[in-house]
């Protein structure tokens, strides 16, 4: 009776088997590793028919599927451990394991607010700030801007931008608009695995960026996690802080958005207007200082693709810390050790960041893939896929 029932429903069973076969074949690498050189053979009772031959993975999948999934999970865990082994050794050998554990704990508690700088967009062919200024200068140097090069040499980037802006505001803004626009080709590149995709797994709350482009918006939307609140530069009356406090997914674009010229913050006068900061006071009624203070005292910032040289944002954080009105959480920064032979440079950088509760996690010069690897390791530790412990010698 059962045989007849099965034969009469072969089309249904066949469809189920097709789905299961697809699942089995999708694990080709594991199957090959599990099988090795083994195969199971037995003879047919039908004369002149060749012996039946099956691989161990096939037999386990069709006969004891729960055990197959156990073996597959164990294989993947071992693969993940192997993948992270070198990075874990680096973090322990460079005495950065406890700082990394602090970052992992903040991610686990969903207290991380990514702070994304131009270094991340650079990977998608967008210019760094200095590169953008040089390009604008090339467009305008026939107007006579002799002081530009001296300002750049003295690291006076805000003043250099101000000089360019004053020469031709329209061309200055037009450069930003055309250079930071996003194309369909760029969208495809952006949606490949990388730091922006990892950020969708690290936070469900706010993201801060100094970038004009729309990389983060595109990626978060592609991952079905679109932003619910927006604040662009000096934009007002957007109820951003109320959305932030509610825990909505929000994006704060500190320097403005490429689509909205009136939100741009690029040169000295624009910075001064936005922050109104000096040695004595900050106007926390202004949108940017108010919002940055709320985030700085509430969550742990994670700086990515940021040089963290002295700028208005760090000055604001320093002011908040020195006021002593709030208990400041621990913040983190993934930083390239650009001068590995200059211990004084690294020490001076740390001594500038540590007083405002920013703890750097250094990676070697030129190892530009390591920040993404660090985020991947942190997520795997949070999700229990790998144990972060000192490697045995």
Low-confidence stretches: none
Q: Whole-number average pLDDT?
A: 86
* Molecular shape: elongated
Q: Assign a percent range to the helix content.
A: 40-55%
Distance between the termini: 63 Å
Estimated structural class: alpha/beta
Strand order of the largest sheet: 5-6-4-3-7-8-9
Helix and strand element order? HHHEEHHHEHHHHHHHEHEHEHHEHEHEH
Tell me the radius of gyration: 27 Å
Beta-strand content estimate: 5-15%
Number of domains: 3
Total helical elements: 20
What is the gist of this entry?
Helix 5 crosses helix 20, helix 13 packs across helix 14 and helix 17 (287-298) crosses helix 18. It contains 20 helices and nine strands.
Which SSEs are present, and which pair or pack?
Blueprint (H helix, E strand, L loop, with lengths): L1 H7 L1 H16 L2 H8 L4 E3 L9 E3 L1 H8 L1 H29 L3 H12 L3 E5 L1 H5 L6 H12 L6 H7 L3 H11 L1 H11 L4 H7 L4 H8 L3 E4 L5 H8 L6 E4 L7 H7 L3 E4 L14 H8 L11 H12 L1 E5 L7 H12 L7 E7 L5 H11 L4 E7 L5 H13 L11
Parallel strand pairs: 3-4, 3-7, 4-6, 5-6, 7-8, 8-9
Antiparallel strand pairs: 1-2
Helix pairs in contact: 4-5, 5-20, 6-20, 8-10, 8-11, 9-10, 10-11, 13-14, 13-20, 17-18
Keywords:
single chain; about 400 residues; alpha/beta; 3 domains; seven-stranded parallel beta sheet; two-stranded antiparallel sheet; 9 strands; about 55% helix; elongated
Structure commentary:
The chain has 393 residues and is of the alpha/beta class. It folds into three domains: 35-79, no CATH class; 97-126 and 183-382; 130-176, no CATH class. 54% of the residues lie in helices and 11% in strands. It is elongated and about 95 Å long.
């Amino acid at each position: 009776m059962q045989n007849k029932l099965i034969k009469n429903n072969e089309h249904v069973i066949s469809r189920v088997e097709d789905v299961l076969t697809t699942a089995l074949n999708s694990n080709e690498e594991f199957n090959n590793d599990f099988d090795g050189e083994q195969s199971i053979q037995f003879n047919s009772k039908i004369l002149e028919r060749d012996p039946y031959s099956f691989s161990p993975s096939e037999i386990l999948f069709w006969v004891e599927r729960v055990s197959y999934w156990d073996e597959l999970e164990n294989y993947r865990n071992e693969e993940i451990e192997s993948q992270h082994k070198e990075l874990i050794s680096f973090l322990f050998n460079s005495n950065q394991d406890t700082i990394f554990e602090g970052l992992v704990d903040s991610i686990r508690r969903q207290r991380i607010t990514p702070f994304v700088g131009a270094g991340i967009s650079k990977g998608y062919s967008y210019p760094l700030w200095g590169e953008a200024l040089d390009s604008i200068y090339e467009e305008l140097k026939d107007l006579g801007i002799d002081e530009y090069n001296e300002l750049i040499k003295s690291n006076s980037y805000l003043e250099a931008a101000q000089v360019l802006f004053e020469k031709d505001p329209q061309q200055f803004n037009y450069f930003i608009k055309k250079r930071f626009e996003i194309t369909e080709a760029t969208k495809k590149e952006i949606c490949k695995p990388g730091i922006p995709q990892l950020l969708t797994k690290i936070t469900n709350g706010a993201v801060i960026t100094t970038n004009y482009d729309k990389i983060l918006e595109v990626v978060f939307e592609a991952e079905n996690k679109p932003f619910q609140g927006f604040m662009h530069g000096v934009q007002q009356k957007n109820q951003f802080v109320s959305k932030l406090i509610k825990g909505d997914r929000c994006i704060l674009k500190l320097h403005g958005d490429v689509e909205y010229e009136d939100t741009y913050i690029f040169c000295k006068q624009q910075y001064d207007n936005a922050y109104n900061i000096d040695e004595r006071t900050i106007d926390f009624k202004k949108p940017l200082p108010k919002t940055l203070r709320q985030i700085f005292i509430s969550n742990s910032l994670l700086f990515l693709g940021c040089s963290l040289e002295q700028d208005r944002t760090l000055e604001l954080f320093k002011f908040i810390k020195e006021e002593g009105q709030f208990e400041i959480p621990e913040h983190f920064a993934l930083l390239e050790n650009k001068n590995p032979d200059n211990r004084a440079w690294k020490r001076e950088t740390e001594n500038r960041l540590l007083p405002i509760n920013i703890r750097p996690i250094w990676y070697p010069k030129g190892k530009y893939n390591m920040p993404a690897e660090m985020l991947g390791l942190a997520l795997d530790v949070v999700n229990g896929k790998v144990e972060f412990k000192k490697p045995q010698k």
